[in-house]
UniProtKB/TrEMBL annotation:
This is Tryptophan--tRNA ligase. The gene is trpS. The lineage of its organism: Bacteria, Pseudomonadati, Pseudomonadota, Alphaproteobacteria, Rhodobacterales. Its main location: cytoplasm. Its EC number is 6.1.1.2. It is found in: Cytoplasm.
Length: 334
C-alpha cells in the first residue's frame, strides 16, 4: 500500500514555491485518501545557523501554514522531526552506509556551501542522509517534492539499495520522487533563472504565504518580465523564463495546464496578464494567510497538534528503527 512522506524546513517563512511545489500537493494527496506523513524538519534547519527563538516561532508558523493549506492533522500525521528521535538514530546508521563520493555530487550542497566549503557545518554535508532516514524510517513509497529535491530522493534510493545489499536483506522499499503539476520549480520574481527561495535577500523576489493582498498584488505587478505579448503556444515561451514562470504560476493556482493559460491570454501583454494573475493569486492565497494568522494566535494548540503527530509518527518509526538495529547487529537487551 502506498505511504507518502515529505518534509519542509522551518528555516524561514513559507513561499509560493513551497506552496505550489509541496503544500498544495500534500493536501491533494491527503484528500485522495492516501496515508500521508508530513514533517517539519527542524534538525535539517539547524544545518545552517538558526536563532533558537526564531526557529521555534518559524516551526509553529510552518505548522500553521500546513494546516491553512488544507492539511488536516487528524487525517495526515503532522509533526516536527526532533520530537521523534528515531530520525537522528537512523540518520547515523545511514551516515555509515552513504559514501563520501555520493555526498560530493549533491548540487544543493555545492550551491549552499559555495566557495566556503571548509566553513559550513558537518551537518550540512550529511544533510541528505538524514533526509534518507526521514523517508526510509516510515518505509514510505512516494515522496512528493519540488524539482530541486529530486536528486536527494534518488540518493535515498541508492542508500536504501546499498543497505539492503550490504546486509543481504530486502528491508527498505525504494521510494519514488513524485514531481508533478504546473509549478514544480517556481522561479524568483526578479530573475527567471533563479529558484524562488526563502533565503533570497530580496523580499520582492518571492511571495510569502504570510503576505497580505496588497503586497501580493504589488509584487506581481513589479515582477520582472519582457515587453512581448504572450505567444500562441508554449513553444513561444522557450527563451522567456520570466514569462514562462508567471504562466506556470497562473496554471498551478488555477488548476489549468500551462498550454490552456497561454491559449487564454495569447496576444495579450503583461499589462493585462499581470492584473489577472494578481487577482487569482490574492483569491487563492489571502485565505491562507488569514487562516495562518488565526491559528498562530493559539501556539499552545499548535504545539499540542505537533506533539500528537509525533506520537503517531513514533508508533510507526520505532519498530522500523528497532528492526534496523537488529539487522545491523546491535545487542538489544532492554
Ligand atoms: P525545502 O524546505 O527547501 O522545501 C520544501 C518543499 O518545497 C519545495 N520547493 C519548491 N517547489 C517549487 N518551486 C520552488 N521555488 C520551491 N522551493 C521549495 C521543495 O522541493 C520541497 O518539496 N530537503 C528538503 C526537506 C526534507 C524532505 C525530507 C523532503 C527533509 N527531509 C524528506 C522530502 C522528504 C528541503 O530542504 O525542502
Amino acid at each position: 500500500t502506498p505511504r507518502i512522506f515529505s518534509g519542509i524546513q522551518p528555516s524561514g517563512g513559507l513561499t509560493l514555491g513551497n506552496y505550489l511545489g509541496a503544500l498544495k500537493r500534500f493536501a491533494e494527496k491527503q484528500d485522495e485518501g492516501i496515508e500521508t506523513i508530513y514533517c517539519l524538519v527542524d534538525l535539517h534547519a539547524i544545518t545552517v545557523w538558526q536563532d533558537p527563538e526564531r526557529l521555534r516561532q518559524q516551526t509553529r508558523e510552518a505548522a500553521a501554514g500546513f494546516m491553512a493549506s488544507g492539511i488536516d492533522p487528524t487525517r495526515s500525521i503532522l509533526f516536527n522531526q526532533s520530537q521523534v528521535s528515531a530520525h537522528a538514530e537512523l540518520g547515523w546508521i545511514l551516515n555509515c552506509v552513504a559514501r563520501l563520493g555520493w555526498m560530493n555530487r549533491m548540487t544543493q550542497f555545492k550551491d549552499k556551501a559555495g566557495k566556503n566549503a571548509e566553513q559550513v557545518s558537518l551537518g550540512l554535508y550529511a544533510y541528505p542522509s538524514l533526509m534518507a532516514a526521514d523517508i526510509l524510517l516510515y518505509h514510505a513509497t512516494h515522496v512528493p517534492v519540488g524539482d530541486d529535491q529530486k536528486q536527494h530522493v534518488e540518493l535515498t534510493r541508492d542508500i536504501a539499495a546499498k543497505f539492503n545489499h550490504d546486509y543481504g536483506v530486502d528491508f527498505f522499499p525504494m521510494p519514488e520522487p513524485v514531481i508533478e503539476g504546473a509549478a514544480t520549480r517556481v522561479m524568483s520574481l526578479r530573475d527567471g533563472t533563479k529558484k524562488m527561495s526563502k533565503s533570497d535577500p530580496s523580499d520582492a523576489s518571492r511571495i510569502n504565504l504570510t503576505d497580505d493582498a496588497d503586497t501580493i498584488a504589488q509584487k506581481i505587478r513589479k515582477a520582472r518580465t519582457d515587453a512581448e505579448p504572450l505567444p500562441e503556444t508554449l513553444e513561444g515561451l522557450k527563451d522567456r523564463p520570466e514569462a514562462r514562470n508567471l504562466v506556470n504560476i497562473y496554471a498551478a493556482l488555477s488548476g489549468m495546464t500551462a498550454e490552456a493559460v497561454v491559449g487564454q491570454f495569447a496576444g495579450q501583454g503583461f499589462g493585462a496578464f499581470k492584473p489577472a494573475l494578481a487577482d487569482l493569486a490574492v483569491a487563492k492565497l489571502s485565505p491562507i494567510s488569514t487562516e495562518m494568522t488565526r491559528l498562530m494566535a493559539d501556539p499552545g494548540e499548535i504545539d499540542r497538534i505537533l506533539g500528537e503527530g509525533a506520537d503517531r509518527a513514533e508508533a510507526i518509526a520505532r519498530p522500523i528503527l528497532d528492526r534496523t538495529l537488529d539487522i545491523v547487529g546491535m545487542v538489544r537487551s532492554r
